[in-house]
Amino acid sequence: MWGILLVLVSLPNNAYTKQPNIVVIVADDLGYQDVGFRGSDILTPNIDRLAGQGVILENHIVSSICSPARASLMTGRYGIRTGFWKGNIKPNEEFGLGLDETLLPEMLKRNGYKTHGVGKWHLGMHTWEHTPPKRGFETWFGMFLGEQGYFSHKKIGRTDLRENYYDLDGNLVDNVRKDLKGKYNTYLYTDKSVELVQNHDQTKPFFLYLAYTAPHIPHEVPEEDADRFASHILGKRRNYAAMVSVMDEGVGKIADALTNNGMMENTIIVFTSDNGAYYKSVGSNYPLRGGKSSFLEGGVRGVTFVHSPLLQKSGYTNTNLHHVTDWYATFQKLAGDKPEEGSKAQLPIDGVDIWRSASNDEPCRDEILYELRDPSKRLDSQGRRGLKNVKKYPVQLKTTKMKFRKGDSRDAQEFFVIRWKNWKLLTGSGLEFQGWSPDRGLKEYRNFVNYNGELHPRSLVSGTFLFDLSTDIREEHNVADTYPNIVNSLLDKKQGYLDKVKVVEERNYSNAGMADGVWKPWVEL
Ligand SMILES: [Ca+2]
């Protein structure tokens, strides 16, 4: 009997002798509800089909904004460890994922994978060493920053689109693709991805990281696509909907390419959003509360599914708790990685291998740190002071105008947001609270109401909030007073996380990276 048990227990290590192909597709600022499988009016037949054949990960937590979600995906580590707990990287900021980090493509490359990156980076570009080809991507086609014109490929008037800008000898040959101006970037990213699949040498495992910018602002889409996909949707939401549908069509083309050249049988596709739809955008996180930049569920719960013929169980919605950090650990296992053989020391990983959880519906983790902010760990000038610093430079970076309650400031943000099983605790000061998206993003999206029935605009609040997500997915009822023991047991976990926080140092902001009509690294290491 013990022999049989041992065989069963050892199965996960030996179940797949062949390393799987891995395709990770990220959507940008996609609303929780804005796919067909969640009842949206937006057309996403390809995503729906792949999700339907695969496993929908209902409880997959990402981050509230772009850079931190990507940093966690790339490293398997919480933002507190990488310094991305501070938030996004600004275009002229000298900050990036630490060079001591081993990124996902780097890890897969050392295990024999051909590694390709397409789309949005947003993890640092002040030195060439921080950019994708130096972080494990053998080929790269995409942009360094967080957003750009979809046809111009420009941010603040400068082009940000490159392809394979190192030659085979490792010499920099800065290949800026200004020639692609006018071509819609979602199409460009799809076409490049299909080409990479078609040209793949199948004696090696394949890794593609495709980070679409859709449907992030600006809401630009070819007019014929707005007609083709979204003629049933009116108002500002029409372009957003069409952007999602063009991306969906791309996802379908990539899946077809994988099938047509015989790779699909041994491929794992993970699709996820990086954060929820923006609060005042036309996307919808219904029925969840809040959106982008908030740690309420509407901000952080992903549109996530995994598709693979390798899944033991498929065609179901999985409600186990998962976090964006988990993919690194999962792929490490599936690739047969031996971190001790890497050229860098493997830094501590917060993610867990969720393959059996997704594939066999086995529970895997009970706890997720959503975020921890402590001003004492910041030696820089963040928040309002940080924005003032940016204004010193000749180009005015767009900032969001927010109406906070008197006395509120991001300078004072000191909060801890944690999930344990069905419980979610938000505690501290400067917590960003928002209202609810309406169903299908109807035009009354500005009319947010709180649980007292009052208008509830975006605001920073202080206090202790405990929500039971098993009965209150909309985070309407604060039960902190009812369950003080739960609150205290979750608060007890704070110090352990606090001890792991990477201090964010003061750093420079410079416009030297945008000198020649092109965004370009400006710091020599
Ligand atoms: Ca985003």
Relevant terms:
alpha/beta; Alkaline Phosphatase, subunit A; 9-stranded mixed β-sheet; 14 helices; 4-stranded antiparallel β-sheet; binds calcium ion; globular; 525 residues; disordered N terminus; Arylsulfatase, C-terminal domain
Architecture overview:
By secondary structure, this protein is α/β, with parallel strands linked by helices. The chain folds into 2 domains: 20-366, Alkaline Phosphatase, subunit A (3-Layer(aba) Sandwich); 369-498, 2-Layer Sandwich (Arylsulfatase, C-terminal domain). It is 25% helix and 17% strand. The chain has 14 helices and 17 strands. The protein has helices at residues 2-14, 45-53, 66-75, 79-82, 104-109, 185-198, 223-230, 237-260, 297-300, 326-335, 355-360, 383-391, 484-491, 494-498, and strands at residues 21-27, 55-57, 60-61, 114-120, 139-143, 154-155, 158-159, 162-163, 206-211, 267-273, 304-307, 316-318, 322-323, 367-373, 414-420, 423-433, 459-468. The strands form 4 sheets. Strands 8-5-4-9-1-10-11-2-12 form a 9-stranded mixed beta sheet. Strands 14-15-16-17 form a 4-stranded antiparallel beta sheet. It has a two-stranded parallel sheet with strand order 3-13. Helix 2 (45-53) crosses helix 8 (237-260), helix 6 (185-198) runs parallel beside helix 8 (237-260) and helix 7 packs across helix 8. The longest helix has 24 residues, at 237-260. It is globular. Mean pLDDT is 89; it is low at 1-15, 383-409 and 443-455. Bound molecules: calcium ion. Calcium ion is lined by residues 28-29, 66, 216, 274-275.
